[in-house]
Write a structure and sequence with these properties.
Layout lengths: L8 E4 L2 E4 L3 H16 L3 H6 L6 E7 L2 E11 L6 E9 L8 E9 L4
C-alpha cells in the first residue's frame, strides 16, 4: 500500500515525531479485514489460538505494522472474531488502531 500524503510531524527540540495517518490506517485495516473475511472458514478456524499474523506496510510514507488474529467470540463457538491492529511508527507515543469483524459459522 502506498499513499501520496505525507505523515504529520511535530518538532520537539531536535526530535521529529511521526504520527500515523489515521484515515489511511483505518482504510488499510478495512482492506485487510475484507481479505480475511473472504478466506475459507477452515483456514480462519486453523488460526485460532495462534500468534497474530503480522506484516509491515507503508501508509502515507510511514512504516506501520498490521497484526491480524482470530478467536472465538464466546464459548458457544458459533462465530469467529477477526481482529486487525495497526501499530504506528512513533517510538514516543503508542499509536494503535483496532478494527474487528465477526464471521458466523454456518451449519451445513
Amino acid at each position: 500500500m502506498c499513499c501520496r500524503r505525507r505523515a504529520k510531524r511535530t518538532r520537539l527540540s531536535s526530535v521529529v515525531k511521526h504520527h500515523m495517518e489515521r484515515a489511511s490506517a483505518y482504510a488499510a485495516l478495512a482492506t485487510e479485514l475484507e481479505q480475511w473475511r473472504l478466506r475459507p472458514l477452515v483456514e480462519l478456524e486453523s488460526r485460532i489460538g495462534l500468534p497474530p499474523v503480522a506484516c509491515d506496510v507503508r501508509i502515507a510514507g510511514e512504516a506501520v505494522t498490521l497484526e491480524v488474529s482470530v478467536t472465538w467470540t464466546d464459548a458457544s463457538r458459533e462465530r469467529l472474531k477477526v481482529e486487525a491492529v495497526a501499530f504506528g511508527p512513533s517510538h514516543w507515543d503508542m499509536e494503535r488502531l483496532v478494527e474487528r469483524i465477526i464471521v458466523p459459522i454456518q451449519s451445513p
